Each structure stands twice: as C-alpha cells, then as structure tokens.
C-alpha cells in the first residue's frame, strides 16, 4: 500500500536539506511545517509544551499557556495527559487562559468549552484549579465588559502568555475573532459569523441551537503572546490556510495578522497544506523533480490556466507560466502533451471491474479474474451511492459479485420526526390488522413522550438509537435492491467507535479493526472500494478508512490480498484532483438518473440532512454537480464529452 499517498512529495530540490521551518518560500510569510498526519504533529506540540513547562520549572517560574478548544487540539491534550500519567509531567506551575467560550453558555452543558477543557485535559492532570481561566458564559451582559478587562489584566499580571495554541475557523478566525476584527482588539463579546455557526451546528444538534455570540480573547491579546503555534488539519482548512499564510495581511482574515508576529509557527497535516504554492504549484518556487504525478499535475493546471486542451499546449505556454524547466527536461511540448493526454485517456473506462476478453494493458483494471468479487465499504449507509452509485450499478450490470459493507449505523443523522413516523406505521398496522406486534402501543407512547421532551444535544436512549439504525438499514437495503445487489450481499458492521450516541466519536478501536478483518476474510474480494473522503466534518470517514488500513495491515500475509486492488472514492464533501486519479468511470444521462434514484432511497437524508455543513444543497445535487464538473474538466482537457464522471484513486 502506498502509505505516502497523502504526503507532500513535491518539495522542490532546493528545499531539501533544510528544516522545513527554517525557510520561508517567497509565497509563505509564516514559518510552517507539514506533517503526514495530525497525530504526529500533535505529539510534537505536546513535546514542545512539556519542554517549556520543564524549563520554567527549572527556573522556578510559572508557565503560562493559552489554550484552544474544538476538534483540532484534542490529540495534543491526549498526549499531554499521557505525558503526565506515564512520564510524570507536572502541571503545578502551569497557568492557563482559554481563548473563548460561547455566550450565553452554562459550563455544565455538553457544548461548553469549560466542560471540554475539563473532560479532555484538566480533570486528568495536576493543574491547580485556581490557575485555570476560561471566559465565563453565564455573566449578565452588563458584566461582560468589565469581566473582559479583568481577563486581559489577569493575563498581563501572570506575565503574559508564553505559548498560545490556536486553531483556525473556515472564516479565518482565531479565537472567535471573525472577519472584520481589527488587529488590536481586546477580549470582548462578539457575534459569530454565519459560517462559524453552521460549522458548530452538528455540536449543537442543529444551527438553530448555536449561540449567536461568544466571549473571545482579542486579536491584540493573542498577538502579545511570546510564542504562537497555529494548527490546522484536513482539506476543509486548506483554502483558508493558503490565504492566511500566502496572501497579504487583511482584517477580512484575522489569522493573517500572525504574519507580523515575531514567533509564530504553523503546523499543518498534508491535507490542510494542499492549497499552498509549494504543494499545489511547486514549479513556481524553483526546480522540481518531475515524477509522473507532478508532470500530470502541471499539465492539468496549465490547461486550466491558459484555457486550452492538452494537445494544443505549446512550448510558449509552458515557458510563460513557470514550466520552462519541464519543457527543457521532458519536452518538447508535443511529447509531454501526448504522454499526459494518453495517460488521462487511459484512466477512462466503462468497465470498472475490468473488461473480460479485452487487452487490459492500458486499462485501469485487469480483465481477469472475471467476474470479480467486489467489496464496497461505505462509512455511512448512503456514501456508496452518493459517491459511486453509477460505478456500483455498472459493476452489478457487468456481472460482478458486489457486496456493500456499511461501516457505521449512521443513526445520529436521523431526525426524531422520522422515528415517530415509522412508529406511527407500526402502530397503525397492528391496529388495522389487529396484529400482535408485541407492546408496540406501549413503545410508541414511551418514545413519543421521550422525544417530545428531548433537549437539544441530549443523547438518545438505546431503544431510539436502535430505531434510527433500523431506519437507515432499511434505506440502504432499498438502495441496494434498486441497483440489483441482493440482500445476502448487504452487510452492516455497526462499528462501535461510532456508537457514542453523540456527534463526537471515539478513535478507531480493537473491535472496529476486528470486525473489518472479519468481513474482509469472509468476502476475500478482488476489488475493494473505500471512502478516501477525509474532510467529512465529523471525522467518521477518517476513522472508517483507518479501520480498513489497519485491518489490511493485519491481513498482509493473506494470499487473496496480493491479488486485490484498492480504490478510493470521494463524494459528498469533495473530489480528487486529476493528478491522483487512476480510474474515471463515465456515466450516461440515464445512469445519472439511476444514481439519483438510488440516493433518493435514503429518505431520512433527503430534503434536509441533519448535518449538512455549510453546503445547503442536497447530497444528490452535490454528487451530480461534482460528477458533472469532472466530466467538463475531462472535456476541456480534450477528451470525450460525457454527462458525468466518477473518479477513483488506486492505492494498491
Ligand atoms: C476554539 C477557537 C476556535 C477554533 C476554530 C477551529 O477555542 O477559538 O478558533 O480553534 O474554530 O475549530 P476546530 O478545531 O473544531 O476545527
């Protein structure tokens, strides 16, 4: 397996031999390091914090930390707790100031940053309670101003913040300093941006429950910190990070103020670095090592830049757009053009399972064996059809034995209303036919009163979770039936990491891996399809992929695995870049219709999914528009014109 799939492989030659944070490319205005994943970066930061605490202890001084909440710092806190438990790191000389708290907010509420900090860190270390400072969301409005002055004063009196941790919102906010904040703002009550509200919606079980305001440390307060480390993980942050680091300072993107801070370090995982010049267009920085992926990346980029198809690109186009080195090393133009044209042309196939009795030397999939056993992993019960519904239908039509494996129950994304609707049916059915559905009337009354009194954010009872799970299972079966996958080939893993009953999930665990190993051993597929969609805002896709990778690692001695290809799809949240694509399956208008109807079978997710994110389109609309956009891109590059295309990356 290519474990480096998400690694930045394109560092220009002149960068090698440097510590990445020792230089600034002429586009990057803040020192920056890219890590393969958030885990590794978090361990590094926790180590930095521990070193700082130790050095302050040696000097007999306090260590003042500025702390953030949200999904980003979680692994840092886990590592700090580990360092405390296993390596004796003491926090008795540590004073903390948190960035923010929603307003109004009860500190006991599940969404409170007080509760967050205690659950993730403070309850597990030896910090003195009087050294913890987190803005108070219970104050009366008229008390807030003076309280904020005091918060800033307390920071000054503690000697200022030695190390401030920051996450970044998609608006470019640091703390809750939203676009429009001046550089010298002090701690205060602010109104949240609508994007921030939408991003927080899943934590609050609906946008309507998100507080509109927050108390936040000001930009001026943050910028007075002696050292700042800003962290960002995932594709969802990539565009914002590019602006913060490479574009001019602007109050429309408060994180860009960090460009003028004397000691800020930015740590990104590979996904969050995708839009930086050094990753996206490294040829603009200096000489490159022109491997196959980079050449394709450059040609696709150039076509879009000069609005020409591949075969019409000229030496002049290459030279005028920073690609002189490429034509000099691998040119002339025509040679590169034909090579990349053929490469991309060969990604297109109407036979995702391989075409029997055909020469397969330039096809993405082998002709044999035929038919193939295909295992499609789907993190939630609808990702398979949303992301690869057209390909799924083709695989079935072309005679392959397709199994779908739903990794999680998807239960938290079902509206309470839907539970009642189904219960109404069961109740009505038993009344009409005088049928004995044991205790259905009682269950109906109980659940109805339970859901009627439910508070936002309240975790469902196991009974309700079961019902929601059953609703999604029924929908997944209906979609499979529509596509022609028999019930016996539809599997539900119900991975335990997902079953916390709340939006926050556990990391991958032993049982998740065991269940994944078991299904792989049972099916022994020739092809695996899995979601490589890492920017799912709730992290479920990420954990599901992790479970698959770990299961495969355990099975690597198995003979069947050597003959198995693994394809990654993306769907609901974003698409692969063409330089990574190894298979492109075109869909006719009729097939687009089939896909749409298969997605419609997931009725509980239609009209308005519970967690839509910022994109208000329905899933079928997003999928259709994305697949159409890919087809348009292929067309513009000079390939045939299709209605839609689903694309896949191969990792084994
Ligand atoms: C949290 C905070 C915010 C978050 C930012 C990113 O204390 O101040 O600025 O750091 O919204 O949130 P996550 O980490 O959840 O993506």
Explain the layout of strands and helices:
Elements: E1 32-35, H1 38-58, E2 63-67, H2 74-87, E3 94-98, E4 100-103, H3 113-120, E5 132-133, H4 141-157, E6 163-166, E7 188-191, H5 194-200, E8 213-216, H6 219-223, E9 227-232, H7 238-246, E10 264-269, H8 277-280, H9 292-306, H10 315-320, H11 324-330, H12 333-345, E11 373-378, H13 383-397, E12 401-406, H14 416-432, H15 440-452, H16 462-483, E13 490-492, H17 510-523, E14 527-531, H18 540-554, H19 559-562, E15 565-569, E16 583-587, H20 589-600, H21 619-636, E17 644-650
Parallel strand pairs: 1-10, 2-3, 2-6, 3-5, 6-9, 9-10, 11-12, 11-14, 12-13, 14-15
Antiparallel strand pairs: 4-8, 7-8, 15-17, 16-17
Helix pairs in contact: 1-2, 13-20, 14-15, 14-16, 16-20, 17-18
How is this structure best described in words?
- This protein is of the alpha/beta class and about 650 residues long.
- The protein folds into three domains: about 30-280, Rossmann fold (3-Layer(aba) Sandwich); about 285-345, no CATH class; about 375-415 and about 465-650, Rossmann fold.
- It is about 40% helix and about 10% strand.
- The chain is built from 21 helices and 17 strands.
- The protein has helices at about 40-60, 75-85, 115-120, 140-155, 195-200, 220-225, 240-245, 275-280, 290-305, 315-320, 325-330, 335-345, 385-395, 415-430, 440-450, 460-485, 510-525, 540-555, 560, 590-600, 620-635; strands spanning about 30-35, 65, 95-100, 100-105, 130-135, 165, 190, 215, 225-230, 265-270, 375-380, 400-405, 490, 525-530, 565-570, 585, 645-650.
- Fructose -6-phosphate binds near residues 69, 99 and 168.
- Fructose -6-phosphate binds near residues 70 and 176.
